[in-house]
C-alpha cells in the first residue's frame, strides 16, 4: 500500500466519521432547542416562539456544522490521493456512524436489522479496501486533460447529459411524482461527473501547494464551473426526491445508483480497473454489494419493531401456557367421565324432551 493510497484511505474514513457525527450533533442541538422552547411556552404562554433561526444560538448545532465542513473537506482531499472507486463507496460508513451514535446519544433504537446492516457495511468496506485499485492513473492536470479527451469518456459524458435532459424534461413531469427512480437517476448520473471534477480539482490543489502555476491553467477553472453546476443540479433534484418520497427509500437507492455511476465513470475515465486481476475485480464488486445489503437493511427496516414473535417457533422463548393441551388432571381422568355432548347441546336436548 503506497503512501498516497494510505492517505486517501485515512481521509475517506475520517470524512465518514465527521459527517456521521455532524448529523447527531445538529439533531442533538435541535432537540435541546425544542426542549427549552417547550419550557418557555409553559412559563410564558404568550412568548412561546423563539424564531425560525433560534438554532443559530445553539453551540451544538454549530459543532455539527463544523464537523460537516471538516468531513466534506476531507472527502474532497481523499479524491486527490485515492481512487474514486474506493473513496465513494466508503461514504456509506457515515450512515453507519450516524446510526450507532444516534442509538447512544439520542436514544434512538437500533433494531436487529440495523445491527446486521452495520456489520455488513463494515465487512463490505474491509473487502473493498483489500481489493481496491491502488495505482493512481492521473497525477497532474496535463494527464487529466489527456484523459478528458478520451473517446470513451466523451461518449459516456454525452450519454449522461442526454439521459439527464430526457429525465428532467420528459420523464420528470410525467413520472416524477410516482416513480422514485426519475429524480434519483438524475442525481446519480450528474454526480458521476461531479466526482470527476472533484478529483481533477484535488489534483490541481495538490500541484498548487507544490509550487506549480496551476492558476494559469484554464482546465482548473473549467472543472470548478462544471462542479458548481453539477452540485446545484444534484441538490435540487435530491431535495425533490426527498420531498416526495420517504427518506428510507431514497437513501439506499441513491447510494446504489450514485456509487455505481461513479465507479463506471472512474473505470472509463481514469482506467482504475485496468491493472486489476480477476480476483480483485470480483472482490471489489462483492464488497460493494455487501455494503449495499447493509445500507438496505439499515434503512428499509429502520422503523420495524423486532419482537420474539417474529422468530421461528424453535427459537422463541418458552412461554407458560395457562391452559396446556395435556395437563396432569386430564392424564388421570378417564374417558368414561367425559361428557358425550357439550353443555349447550345437553341443554337444548333437555328442553326438547320437556316439550
Polypeptide structure, described:
The protein is an all-alpha fold and 355 residues long. 71% of the residues lie in helices and 0% in strands. The chain contains 13 helices and no strands. The chain has helices spanning 3-43, 59-78, 84-90, 93-105, 112-131, 141-148, 151-175, 181-209, 218-244, 247-269, 278-300, 328-332, 343-354. It starts with a helix and ends with a helix. Mean pLDDT is 78; it is low at 43-51 and 326-338.
Distance between the termini: 100 Å
Largest sheet, in brief, is: none
Strand content: under 5%
Which shape, going by the Cα principal axes? globular
Order of helices and strands: HHHHHHHHHHHHH
Number of helices: 13
Return the structural class. Answer: mainly alpha
Rg, Cα atoms, Å: 30 Å
Number of strands: 0
Average pLDDT: 78
Low-confidence stretches: 43-51, 326-338
Helix content: over 70%
